[in-house]
Amino acid sequence: MGDDAAIVQAARVSYGAGTRKVREDRALIRYLLRHRHTTPFEMCELKLHIKAPIFVARQWLRHRTASVNEYSARYSRLDREFYVPDADHLQSVHEEQIGRQRASSSGMDDLFGSTEAVGERLALATQSELARAALPVNYYTQFYWKIDLHNLLHFLSLRADAHAQYEIRAYADVILDKIVMSWVPATYQPSATMRWTPLRSPQAGSPWSSACWPARRSIRRVAGSPSASGAS
Question: Known InterPro entries for this protein (predicted)?
Fold first, then answer.
């Protein structure tokens, strides 16, 4: 719901003026973002159907600025689908955080090999509300997520950042480059390319800091790479 036109319309309501030329609209949106006039961006809302590993969903749902409804494993059986990073991805994380011996395929099998067996046992369980307690957090869950554009930009400023964990960053990149870009292109352009220069020193964690929007990059997809879908 809503788009770039809704943003500028809300910003100009005090003057009784509607949407003007595209060039003027882009300049106004850039001004609003730079000066942190965020209310007009709340005129736009996005609803997504997300399918993600449970550990990614737990990170995602820490952002308490959206309306959420998650699939219930109490009433329905989860798909027997789970996320397993490939050996190269494990190696890159291993080298970055520990810097020791190479992560081997056998090590990955030891780490994730029991997941499928757990799924098979859960499929045979009759009391799903208790059986779900044994689910590994790399199993996929699903949820609907509705958020306004102001809070979405804050979410993306944190989760599309180079320091975010790869798995949730892959989702954030899809949302930013595939959904936001086509939904609100005038808002996307400054968000993706500007290095913010705040009027004053931002508060810690402010989404409008000068380092807020990292340079766009190509994210390598791994086996079982997550994706976001269902924009409406």
Answer: Thymidylate_synthase_ThyX, Thymidylate_synthase_ThyX_sf
